[in-house]
Amino acid sequence: MHVHIQAEEASFERTLSHIVPLFYEEVKTSYGNGDHAAADMRIRLEVETVGTTITSAAKLTDHTRSVELFARHERLAAAQASPEDRRKSIKQAMCFVLLDVLQQHTGIVQPWGILTGIRPTKLLHERLRSGVPAERAHKELREDYLIADEKVALMQRIVDSQLGALPDLYRLRNEVSIYIGIPFCPTKCAYCTFPAYDINGRQGSVSGFLAGLHYEMREIGQWLKRNGIGITTIYFGGGTPTSITAEEMDELYSLMYDHFPDVRNVREITVEAGRPDTITPEKLAVLSKWGIDRISINPQSYTQETLDLIGRHHTVQETIDKFELARNSGMENINMDLIIGLPGEGEAEFDHTLSETAKLMPESLTVHTLSFKRASEMTQHRGKGKYKVAGRNEINRMMRRAVEWTDQFGYVPYYLYRQKNILGNLENVGYAKPGIESLYNILIIEEMQSIIGLGCGASSKWVDPVTGVISRLANPKEPKAYNETYLAYTDAKIEALNKLFRIQPQLETTGV
Ligand code: SF4
């Protein structure tokens, strides 16, 4: 379907165009002042300001069904409003009427209103951090974005969990967290969008990659030590960081202790051991030797046919066995990732996954939601049409089921991010037993401090400690490209860190 938004104001294009895909699965959106004759649907947006009164109006014409729908909204801008605030009010007024006509057209009510950003809880943190009382902050979220009460309550629950886990959350900008990307997996899963390469494949050798990673860790670790910058959390992700051998893991963690500052006081070190087929007693012994206190073992589903279909190459029983093995080796903080909406899976399969999870009781659970478009794409090369893919309503019911189940078993939601521009308002939610929330997940989702990314596909996110302005620098995804460029990327990171923490490079390099 082609939807054309006809509006005079060019600078609102991005915001307005992002609202349309929340309602339709396959949609092309065009935007402009002209009357796009080829479009299936046209939405004309108008806005008028008289004094402090802003009036917006929308007319939707669906040419395929000869339907016309209308919406109108009026609001008062504060008399003292700055030009910037006034523009924001005009933009919101246009979003409101656009949302209104699209809701009328589809019958879909958007619980997040006009909000299209992926980190809704950031909005609440921003207000609370600047001293706005909670009740007023909630009112603003409801009125400015049309967020439903149920979602505002969820945001407050998440913010409460986060501040419980990290009471100094708003004061951590002078520290950093570290993400280390190990880009190998035993095999590549069909739905994978991460930098993950078959460990036996041809994308560069593991030892070559590790040599580059060791270099980055040494250089960055020494920079942190020289400049007195502490580390809050360290996260090994990928790929599957337990794909490498126990000896390689041992060497890596030993190097981390040698070169990073004060590792014994880092608040949390996580190693993703996502694929159960990579977990061995030797590797668990290495994790415990180095005090790694949190791992992730990811079943995704407890239906064998699904695991086979998505190319996980391990059995359901193996997940259960490796979970028990990790528990018996003393691992007391285990996360599990589940996915709603995998191909071939509906409510019955998800219920089965939940009841199997209840037998293991991991400390935390991350529930991802796969869009039906993505699920359909996954089956394209594997028996097209043979596998059912859950629709929007069924996905919503499964998401609700996850909420009820986690409530019933004493988990609290502690982070959430929304998928961008996608029908169904899909969310990924992290749940944890109170007090065992992943600190790294909170810090990265809420963008509360800089995360230094080392290794393949690792993205560094710089959060300016003074202004909060965010910028990024991503390492290459492929091991081969990484091996060729890690020296330059390490230099670029040190330069960025010097700037971020206002350190004079000449003084920094001479250690003065
Ligand atoms: S285990 Fe995870 S990172 Fe590895 S291929 Fe599968 S989805 Fe990708």
From TrEMBL:
Q: What is the lineage of its organism?
A: Bacteria, Bacillati, Bacillota, Bacilli, Bacillales
CDD domains given for it? Answer: Radical_SAM
User: What is the protein name given in its UniProt record?
Assistant: Coproporphyrinogen III oxidase
Q: Which SUPFAM superfamilies match?
A: Radical SAM enzymes
Which SMART domains does the record match to this protein?
Elp3 (SM00729)
Q: Which residues form the Radical SAM core domain?
A: 170-408
> Which NCBIfam families does the record cross-reference, listed alphabetically?
PRK08207.1-4, rSAM_HemZ
Q: Say which domain of life the source belongs to.
A: Bacteria
The record ties this protein, via InterPro entries, to: Coproporphyrinogen-III_oxidase, Elp3/MiaA/NifB-like_rSAM, HemZ, rSAM, rSAM_horseshoe, rSAM_sf
Gene3D superfamilies, per the entry: tm_1862 like domain
> What is the species of this protein?
Paenibacillus oenotherae
